[in-house]
Task: structure prediction
Amino acid sequence: MSSATTGVTGPIDDVRSAAVTGWRARRGDAVSLLVLAAALAAFPLVASTTLLNAGVYALIYSIAAIGLSLLMGLAGQVSLGHAGFFAIGAYTQAILVTRYGTHLLLALLAAVALTLVSAFLVGLFLLRLRGHYLALATLGFGIMVFVVARESEYTGATSGIFGIPKPLINGRTYDSPAEFFWLAAPVVLIGLLLARNLVTSRLGRALSAVNDSEVAAEALGVNTFRMRLQVFVVSAGYAAVAGALFAHWLTVVSPDSANFPLSVTFLLMAVLGGLGTVWGAVIGAFAVQGLGEILRNLIPRIVPDVTGEVQLLGFGIVLAALVVFLPGGLYELWRRALRALRPRRQTSMAALSAASAAKDGGEPPVDIPTLRAAAIEEALAVDRRVSGRGPLLLARGISARFGGVVAVDDVDLTVSPGEILALIGPNGAGKTTLFNIISGVISPLSGTVTVRGRRVDGRPPHVFASAHAARTFQTPQMFASMTVLGNVMVGAHLRGHAGLLAGGLAVPAIREERALERHARRLIDLVGMTKDTDTPVQDLPFGRQRLVEITRALAAGPDLLLLDEPMAGLAGPERRALSDLLRQLRAAGLAVVLVEHDVEAVLALADRVAVLEEGSLIALDVPGRVRQDPAVIAAYLGTDDDDDEVAAALQSDAADSPQRMPGE
Amino acid sequence: MTDLLQLLFAGISQGALYGLLAIGFVAVFTVSGVINLAQGEFAALAGLVAISASASGLPLVVAVALSLLVVLAVSLTMERLTVRQVPGLTTLQSIILTLGVSTALKAVMLIGWGPDAAGLAPITAGTIEVAGVSIRSQELWILGIAVALTLLIQWFYQSTAVGQSLRACADQPIAARLVGISRSRATLLSFAIAGLVGAVVGVLASPISLSAWDSGLTLGLKAFVAATLGGLVSVRGALLGGVVLGVLESLTAGYLDSGFRDAVAFLLLILVLGIRARGGFTVAGGARV
Result:
């Protein structure tokens, strides 16, 4: 049942790995864009009239499909009512031009603006929903637009709005299919370019991370809801542009432009092309229009007297077949073909994966270089305005309950800058739950959490992150589709500011992107992982993944670091190296709170130790005294390894306890 | 007062149809986590098949039986050819997959039956007058059959070994596999239930709200809302959710504007889920299945 509560994520790998590819990919895309531009310019010269007519529709629809591809591939959200936005754009354009004599371009601006506002309002409500609910709610939205268009006199009810002129710009009328095609093609190319930029921008990287692990991305400061809403709005904007063009081409707008089959058609275009790439949407649009054309001719020959949108038969079958046979769409086919054409590269890839497999077997120890605190300070690049010796983290009266079970019971905790506080206790004592509450992953039943005086309890994890705090997870939450560099760059998310606009235009964000990358590389060097910088994190052994997660958490330059069992899965030397790193972080002024099972390591490392048992804090003192505390010995220190293992199994159950995801 | 009673009754009988169809969503979702977007098409198809069979001279009972068989065959084929083929469907994939089937089914109906809506003959014609409220006898049939079928399905889940094994699959998929309950058989069975309730709703609704190639769309959406109101995991909750939706629609159409009728379901969905999201609590209410 978990699939109902997680976000809609699908066969979407490549948008994400595109996030950190640098200039070579940019150059490749520029070439692709030129090739596509040339193909579009030539199309009207070589195509037959029928084909050209279908091509004009394909071009118009492809704009909407690009938007939908962004929404599905990047934001991981689905819309079954995108025709609704298409129709809002089309109707606005039609009404302004025919009734008020508005200039076409001015009308276009208004049509897009109105659609953006509608999408913002709709998204504000709908994007709180997840998965199936979101899909069905967007479907409902589409139906609403259709019903309003059909019932309202203002929109011309069932007959719609007609008499929209063919575009007239600078005294030139674009009334033939070829001219209209040439008019629309640049719009598509610009739309593609903006979408592609967005995918590789800071926003695109953050959303890719969300698709891999929403909770981890949030904990690094990614405001998931806000970013999804932004992409939703942008995506609706694309639909609006398509709608406005459609109005001028068909010269009639009827309620059909909002109908469900059109939403399905947009979806098919995006999915057929491949959700991993915005280019796919254009290819998909032409393929779908072509298929529709063939079916509209073919089906009436087989079954006489059919009317209506019979091509839906093929659309439906292709849609279902794609999921079964080719989840990556045509783009996946293209990539397979490329791979087949480059056998040499493939073998080198195979050698690489064999090498990494061998690596897995022998798990080389993580080698964390010894560094001076000053080097860390510099690498973290934090402007640490020391606010006295006041507490950094203040938790008061925290309680949590799952069902009838009290997980955390009235816990108080204070953490100051420059100290390491260890949180220990038998399994199921509520350590991870406490972490989850502090970082905003779940809401406490009662109590307050403040970081540097700012309330963070009951708020989404990105609020916790923006208070200069970071955390890791008991089970490493890697952004599995990215490289080490990509992971750490997401960690540096809060260092950047480039938003939707800068990301879409790319140029304004270049400097910031480079700075973020430099920073991430420096941190990766710092922890001794230089060689793995461009390795996909999935290929790393477990211990290194832990280290990546810690590096990622450091990337934003936090004052407070919460580590959940950082030693688990590490060998002896690695544990010592990690302890050294933590000491250096402490010396650099960071506060570290760690949950750990290796009690000896913890007692040697921590300044203070908090002991939890059955949700209650039974001791909080310096290691020497905690070691002597009879209650602690009874509760915890006496257990042997076998008990630990049984308890560890229980612990993993506790980790599955319901987590409140932001925006859900 | 009479108006209110009239509206209430109309709402309840219409809502019972939503609720019954909603059970189809619940049956499939609890076993495989899939929201079957073709659920509404099952109903539309049943109505059209029954209309054609009945028009070709077959007695109503035979026509209805035939339509049940056809839809059952369609739902089982759908499971075998699509859902079965992709293990570990993601939410997005399941949406695209069932949307594809739903679209293809729509097109088949459009090609086979044309774009016009038609109605099946009611089980018994005529209306009854109770306390000034005129009730179509078809509406009584709807209520009776909906309640009976819901009780039957609930009994199946709670009291038969097969039904309990279905529930086990829904609650504890791994445990169910360990004790030898085949997930694949459970999925098939859940689609059988989905097909059955879809077909029954289709033939019951046809005399009143007509059947057409695209009538499954809004019907399916409303049934989904009904299932959601009931928590998406409860058979009884689905029926009650349907009745609540039906009554609200009927009152809206009666006292506000009939144009708003179709908006009710959508607004209710957003309202309910929105409140639930804000509270941050998990799927609420009711006995599971």
Observations:
- Chain A has three domains: 34-293, 373-468+559-655, 482-556.
- The first helix of chain A runs from residue 14 to 17.
